[in-house]
């Protein structure tokens, strides 16, 4: 998804698993945005950035402009201002977390390759890309299992880890169903 700061377009990542918006400190500094950096009273532990244990005590109030199309097919900008916590060595420039996604009512529609910002009534183009480096390893269960529609159930698996810091994608051999865990 594209956004702009100081009228310069950049790519941004939306992360529904990230509770707060994170920004790469070096990238922020290299763009000379000169935003005031605020200090929190306590360190904020951040989980889910790979296997790293990260903490942040600093944040900026970031104003982001998202180009989109309104219901009359006119090109418009959505202006969103929100906290972005500074992280050293973040692989992405900016991760938009659920603090913005929920507040601005941003719905991600992968099948339509768009995101709809309900707070502005606009659609923005979206590019969904799978993670790189998918490792294929067998996963075994003790016996076959049937999970009824609309149900969730814990399934014990036997998996020999081949790499750390990986999400698991399960694809049953005899079904076109894909499960994300």
Detailed description of the structure:
With 181 residues, this protein is mainly beta. It has a domain at 2-125: Cathepsin D, subunit A, domain 1. It is 7% helix and 41% strand. The protein has two helices and 15 strands. It has helices at 25-30, 98-103, and strands at 2-5, 8-11, 13-14, 22-24, 38-46, 54-69, 75-87, 94-96, 106-109, 114-117, 122-125, 139-140, 158-159, 169-170, 179-180. β1 (2-5) and β2 form a beta hairpin. The chain is globular and about 60 Å long. It starts with a strand and ends with a strand. Residues 175-181 have low confidence and may be disordered.
Uncertain runs are: 175-181
Can you identify the CATH class of the domain at 2-125? Mainly Beta
What's the alpha carbon Rg, rounded to whole Å?
20 Å
Biggest beta sheet summary: 6 strands, mixed
Name given to the CATH architecture of the domain at 2-125? Beta Barrel
SSE string, helix = H, strand = E? Answer: EEEEHEEEEHEEEEEEE
How are the elements arranged and paired?
Layout: E1 2-5, E2 8-11, E3 13-14, E4 22-24, H1 25-30, E5 38-46, E6 54-69, E7 75-87, E8 94-96, H2 98-103, E9 106-109, E10 114-117, E11 122-125, E12 139-140, E13 158-159, E14 169-170, E15 179-180
Parallel strand pairs: 3-8, 4-7
Antiparallel strand pairs: 1-2, 4-8, 5-6, 6-7, 9-10, 10-11, 12-13, 14-15
């Amino acid at each position: 998804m594209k956004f702009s700061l100081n009228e310069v377009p950049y790519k941004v990542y939306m992360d529904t698993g990230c509770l707060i918006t994170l920004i790469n400190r070096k990238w922020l500094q290299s763009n000379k945005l000169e935003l005031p950096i605020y200090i929190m009273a306590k360190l904020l532990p951040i989980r889910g950035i790979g296997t790293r244990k990260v903490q942040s005590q600093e944040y900026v109030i970031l104003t982001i402009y998202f180009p989109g199309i309104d219901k009359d097919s006119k090109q418009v900008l959505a202006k969103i201002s929100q906290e972005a916590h500074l992280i050293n060595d973040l692989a992405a420039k900016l991760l938009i977390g659920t603090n913005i996604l929920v507040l601005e009512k941003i719905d991600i529609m992968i099948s339509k390759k768009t995101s709809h910002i309900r707070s502005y009534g606009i659609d923005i183009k979206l590019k969904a890309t799978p993670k790189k480096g998918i490792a294929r390893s067998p996963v075994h269960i003790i016996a076959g299992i049937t999970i009824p529609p609309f149900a969730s159930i814990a399934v014990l698996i036997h998996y020999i880890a081949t790499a750390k810091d990986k999400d698991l994608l399960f694809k049953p051999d005899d079904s076109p169903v894909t499960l994300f865990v």
